[in-house]
Amino acid sequence: MANKILKNKKVYLPKGQGFIDAVVGLQWGDEGKGKNIDQLLSKGTYSAVARFQGGANAGHTLKLGGVTFVGHIVPSGCLHKNIELYIGNGVVVDVVSLINEIKQLQDLGFDVTKRLYISNRAKLVSFLHPFLDQADEFMRNKLGGKIGTTSRGIGPAYSDVRARRGLLIGDVLLPDFEQKIATLSEFHLNVLNMYKEKYGFEIPQEKTKGIREAKEKWDNAVRELKRLQICDLSFLIQKRLSEGKNILAEGAQAVMLDVDFGDFPFVTSSNTLPANVCLGLGVPHTYLRDIYGVIKAYTTKVGGGNFPSRIANQALEKAFQDAGHEFGATTGRPRMCGWLDLFALRHAIELSGANKIFINKADICLSDKIKVVTGYKNKEKNKEKVLKEFPLYLNEVTGVITEQIPGWGNKNYGVNSKKKVSKELASYLNYIKNKLADLNVKIISVGTGPDREHFFEWEK
Ligand code: GDP
Ligand code: IMO
Ligand code: MG
User: Fold this and answer.
1) Active-site annotation holder among 30, 94, 258, 341
2) Which of 58, 90, 229, 373 could make a disulfide contact with 309, Cβ separation 3.0–4.6 Å?
3) Taking the model in full, what pTM does it have?
4) Which H or E element spans position 148?
5) pLDDT at 94 exceeding the cut of 80
């Protein structure tokens, strides 16, 4: 099905118009999207990078000549001086993070203020949203079944949007903004009190230094936000497209964390699929062209929920964690490590329509034999069956089908040309290609280290 759609894929654009390509994660996040966006920009095809969903739960790492920058909210084009940076209406904006990142970038010699545009329809993460996030996790933990969120207030901020009580970025410019935030905060404090009375949640004073300090920081950040370029971003993007300029949409999180198609409730609170690019930026779908899907040569996941391809041998999982520096770019939590999960990947490609694939971390391979997950099993009343379709809940998965193939040790670190690739890695890439053959995707580039130049092109 997906095959046919992709083969017939046409872009219906008026002559002279620019287009939008999107980069999305196809696993559980942290696939290296930031690096691939940075890499794509060097081709000169795009004039801007646009975040369309998520918030500061994202952590996108960029490495350039000894400099490391982790963008949580500032789009990953920040280290390219001529690239415009857009924060779309679909994003929940943590203003403290935003202002911090702008300052960090200034210190690194990148002043982004003149090329950063924030949608007046983007949503504000209030200073109490992170506390509500923690309180909700506290309650879930008591009842059994924490999500393992990033504590950045993402769920509560999106809940307030859907409940139509949240505030927009444009609201900060209104004369009655103080009143609006006071009303919202009163509501939040009542909810926090409910968590306290019913579940015993105490605001962790030690860790957060309390609500007052959070409010002070937030107020300062809002003051600085007012000096930034807040605009009708949908209008600006359509203007740029009409000028023939192309835009790269930056996905945060990944398909397996999509609020509708991930492993609910162990998901984030936004739609991470590229279908959301149009809604999260305010553009018609006709502009959407290539979908770049990003994966690692293995799989990682942070947070709750089942992780079917998790490496059973704990010492080996730890070795992957250490070699791949698999610690969250936002929370520092260790990421669980698993084998490449082709069953989940096929599902993610079908859902996203990804037609070009980046594979990262091909330099990290720790054993001479590696496994790949090709199917899921479910055992009920002592009867085991192989799942034909991707399950509604991953906790239904009680076993996996694996295939074993030769590994390549650490031979491929820093390899930057197809000619220098070890034969084992080349055969792994061909193996993946064959397994995905009916989906009509191309593996265009393979990452062999964290730096901008650590990659080789694979298929044209
Ligand atoms: P994102 O959230 O998808 O942008 O990914 P993160 O930045 O959270 O995590 C990816 C991590 O892998 C970062 O530390 C990157 O510097 C690093 N990285 C990206 N590509 C490669 C690669 O090909 N090899 C290695 N060793 N590290 C990589
Ligand atoms: P990037 O963009 C990996 C996970 C959290 C948790 C779940 C819900 O860097 O790939 P949330 O705070 O969104 O309510 O948490 O989603 N999660 C991520 N995991 N990478 C991310 O972003 C993530 N953003 C959220 O760990 O399981
Ligand atoms: Mg990340």
Assistant:
1) 30
2) 373
3) 0.96
4) none
5) yes
